[in-house]
Amino acid sequence: MATPIDTFRAGAFDSHRPPAEDDIKTCIHCGFCLPTCPTYVLWGEEMDSPRGRIVLMRQGLEPGSDMDAMAVHFDRCLGCMACVTACPSGVGYDRLIEATRPQVERNHRRPFRERAFRRACFELFTHPGRLRALVPLAALAGRLRPERLRWLERFPRLAAATRIAPDVALSAAWRRLPAHTPARGTSRGRVGLLQGCVARVIFPAVNEATVRVLAAEGFDVAAPATPSCCGALQLHSGAEPEALARARETIAAFEDCDTVVVNAAGCGSAMKDYGRLLSDDPAWAERAAAFSARVRDITELLAGVEPRAPRHPIQFGDTPTPGDMRVAYHDACHLAHAQGLRAEPRALLAGIPGLEVAEPAGWEVCCGSAGLYNLLQPEAAAELGRRKAANLAATGAGMVVAGNPGCALQIAAHLGLPVRHPVELLDASIHGRSL
């Protein structure tokens, strides 16, 4: 049971888990982060760069500082963690921004419409049952001609949601994963698969491919219907109480599994951070640390074991020869930067016969998805999406491969190419499925 937050406030930040001064002091303001920061790349404003925000965090610890003047710059941060990868001094900007976001939510009074919109996002996207109820409407909207939806441009956030909405099959309203799938051959262990909130409804094929590949590689797969959400969306938006409640539910659901597998980069990043998030909760600290140590991205797990299932060339649509395809690999920020996983997905793709993997320029810069960012900051997100799409298109690839559902939605909205998860290609290669 969560305990009430007991705080006092002298400056912009209150006393409950403010950004750590030791982390702030690590920054030497060298500027290596600047070319990798999406908002600095867009606007060239110092306060919208990692080192500028760290200056604001330092000010926020001082008596008399004002959160209202700072909040806009913290809100503009995508939380992509590219600066963490670029920083030569090891500044823990990931810890700093994750500590700052709840401070903003507690100490900055947002306008009613802003609060209502954020609440609506949490009440919809983190509840698969509610998303499934909207599948028929989404399927209908996907069949409408764009000119029929131009009136939405008067409402930028609603228009942004419509632009990134995928073509959803009606079957998504009732597709379900089996609760248990046995390993093929001798079992290597029992893994739990987080089905996710948005992913299980919008991308059910990714979860289904994940189960088939894991079973083919010798794992017993448990895919419980609950938890419905891991709390990543809330965590990355500063809704700390809700995020921690989801974290506790997720930990409890998978404690009997040897490994917890995730196929969404943002979820995996959050789940690996549970140990730190719950470190001051005596009832959950040890359980959370043990849980986080068992979390693996699907590409991380598979790249770390000897393959059992043979790989075969893939038939891509109308390509004349199986395997005759050049794909562009997109580094999801919460996989490459937050989890440090770049080699693993590439190694798995390299094991598929005949597949050529192209590397786009600007891999380190975010596509603009970033959880709810493309709905909360639609103009900046759209520009980042266009830039990412241009870099991917320049590779000459016929398909994009990305390990995060938010990235897949964002890229597909700005690029006329199919976007697939790495595990979908593995599944096609192992089981002879066409893509």
Give a verbal description of the structure:
This protein is of the alpha/beta class and 435 residues long. The chain has four domains: 21-107, Fumarate Reductase Iron-sulfur Protein, Chain B, domain 2 (Orthogonal Bundle), CATH 1.10.1060; 112-170, no CATH class; 180-303, Rossmann fold (3-Layer(aba) Sandwich); 325-431, Rossmann fold (3-Layer(aba) Sandwich). Helix content is 47%, strand content 8%. It contains 24 helices and nine strands. A five-stranded mixed β-sheet has the order 1-3-2-4-5. It has a four-stranded parallel β-sheet with strand order 7-6-8-9, sandwiched between helices. Strand 8 (399-402), helix 23 and strand 9 form a beta-alpha-beta unit. Helix 4 packs across helix 6, helix 12 (204-216) crosses helix 24 and helix 22 crosses helix 23.
Bulk shape: globular
Low-confidence stretches: none
Write down how many β-strands occur, each being a DSSP E stretch of 2 or more residues. 9
Structural class determined from secondary elements = alpha/beta
Tally of distinct domains: 4
Q: What is the CA-CA span between the terminal residues?
A: 46 Å
How do the strands line up in the largest sheet?
A: 1-3-2-4-5
Under the CATH scheme, the architecture of the largest domain is 3-Layer(aba) Sandwich
Rg: 21 Å
Please bin the fraction of helical residues.
40-55%
Q: Can you tell me the CATH class of the largest domain?
A: Alpha Beta
Overall mean pLDDT score? 90
